[in-house]
C-alpha cells in the first residue's frame, strides 16, 4: 500500500515536472496569450477591461528595453537569474530598518508573472526560483526580456509594452522616446496606483532618475 502511494506521488511529481518543462519550451517560441495575474484580475474585477497586445521585440522601443533594465535589474545581462549582491544588499537594508526593498531580477519577475500567482509564501517563492532556473536555461536573455515586456502589468488592467504605450501615450511601443519609456518603467513597482501620464511629482522624480540611469548604462547587448 505504501509503495503504491509513493509510486503515485512519484508519477504526479514527474508529470508536473515534465509539464513545466514542456510549457517553458513552448513559450520559448509562442507568444504568451495570458498570465495567471490577468485571470485573477478579471475574476476580481469583471468590469475592468484587460488591455494586452503582444508585439515582437523589434516592435518595442530600445528606450523601453533599456528603461526597465536600468530601473529594475541593471545586472540583467550578466547574472544567471538571481542577483545575489542585490539580495544581500536588500537583506542588509531591511535588517537595519531602512526602507524595505526587493531584489527580484527581471528573470524572477518574468517567471512569477507568466507561470505563477501573487503570493508571499515560501512555496510560491520556491516555485519562482524553479521557473527562473528553467527559463534561464531554456530561453535566451532577449526572449526573457521580450516576454517580460509583453506580460507585466503597466497600469490598471494594462499588460505589456504595446498596451501601455497606447494607454499612456496613444502611440505604438516602437515609437516611445526615452522620457516616455522612463515614465512607464517608473510605475512598475505599483502599476495599479501610479500613473505614467500625467505623472505625479513622485513619478516625475523616478522618471528623471531612470533617465539618468539609462544615460549612465549606455548600450546593452543581450544573447
Automatic annotation (TrEMBL):
Annotated catalysed reactions: [GlcNAc-(1->4)-Mur2Ac(oyl-L-Ala-gamma-D-Glu-L-Lys-D-Ala-D-Ala)](n)-di-trans,octa-cis-undecaprenyl diphosphate + beta-D-GlcNAc-(1->4)-Mur2Ac(oyl-L-Ala-gamma-D-Glu-L-Lys-D-Ala-D-Ala)-di-trans,octa-cis-undecaprenyl diphosphate = [GlcNAc-(1->4)-Mur2Ac(oyl-L-Ala-gamma-D-Glu-L-Lys-D-Ala-D-Ala)](n+1)-di-trans,octa-cis-undecaprenyl diphosphate + di-trans,octa-cis-undecaprenyl diphosphate + H(+)
Record-level GO cellular component terms: peptidoglycan-based cell wall; plasma membrane
Main location: membrane
Domain Glycosyl transferase family: 48-215
Biological process terms in GO annotation: cell wall organization; peptidoglycan biosynthetic process; regulation of cell shape
UniProt cross-references to InterPro entries, sorted A to Z: Glyco_trans_51, Lysozyme-like_dom_sf, PBP_transglycosylase, Pep_trsgly
GO molecular function: pentosyltransferase activity; peptidoglycan glycosyltransferase activity
The entry's keywords: Cell inner membrane, Cell membrane, Cell shape, Cell wall biogenesis/degradation, Glycosyltransferase, Membrane, Peptidoglycan synthesis, Transferase, Transmembrane, Transmembrane helix
Listed pathway(s): Cell wall biogenesis; peptidoglycan biosynthesis
Record-listed E.C. numbers: 2.4.99.28
Topology in the lipid bilayer: Single-pass membrane protein
EC main group: transferase
Location relative to the cell: Cell inner membrane
Free-text function comment from the UniProt entry: Peptidoglycan polymerase that catalyzes glycan chain elongation from lipid-linked precursors.
Family note: Belongs to the glycosyltransferase 51 family.
Name of the molecule in the record: Biosynthetic peptidoglycan transglycosylase
Record lineage: Bacteria, Pseudomonadati, Bacteroidota, Flavobacteriia, Flavobacteriales
Amino acid at each position: 500500500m505504501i509503495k503504491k502511494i509513493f509510486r503515485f506521488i512519484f508519477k504526479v511529481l514527474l508529470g508536473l515536472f515534465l509539464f513545466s518543462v514542456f510549457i517553458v519550451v513552448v513559450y520559448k517560441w509562442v507568444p504568451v496569450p495570458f498570465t495567471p495575474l490577468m485571470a485573477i484580475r478579471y475574476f476580481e474585477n469583471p468590469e475592468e477591461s484587460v488591455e494586452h497586445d503582444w508585439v515582437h521585440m523589434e516592435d518595442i522601443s530600445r528606450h523601453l528595453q533599456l528603461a526597465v533594465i536600468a530601473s529594475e535589474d541593471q545586472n540583467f545581462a550578466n547574472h544567471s537569474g538571481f542577483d545575489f549582491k542585490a539580495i544581500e544588499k536588500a537583506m542588509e537594508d531591511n535588517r537595519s530598518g531602512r526602507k524595505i526593498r526587493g531584489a527580484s531580477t527581471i528573470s524572477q519577475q518574468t517567471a512569477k508573472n507568466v507561470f505563477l500567482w501573487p503570493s508571499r509564501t515560501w512555496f510560491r517563492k520556491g516555485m519562482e526560483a524553479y521557473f527562473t532556473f528553467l527559463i534561464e536555461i531554456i530561453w535566451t536573455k532577449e526572449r526573457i526580456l521580450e516576454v517580460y515586456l509583453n506580460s507585466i502589468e503597466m497600469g490598471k488592467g494594462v499588460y505589456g509594452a504595446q498596451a501601455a504605450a497606447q494607454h499612456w501615450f496613444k502611440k505604438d511601443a516602437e515609437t516611445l522616446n526615452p522620457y516616455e519609456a522612463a515614465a512607464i518603467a517608473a510605475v512598475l513597482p505599483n502599476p495599479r496606483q501610479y500613473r505614467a501620464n500625467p505623472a505625479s511629482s513622485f513619478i516625475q522624480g523616478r522618471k528623471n532618475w531612470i533617465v539618468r540611469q539609462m544615460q549612465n548604462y549606455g548600450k546593452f547587448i543581450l544573447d
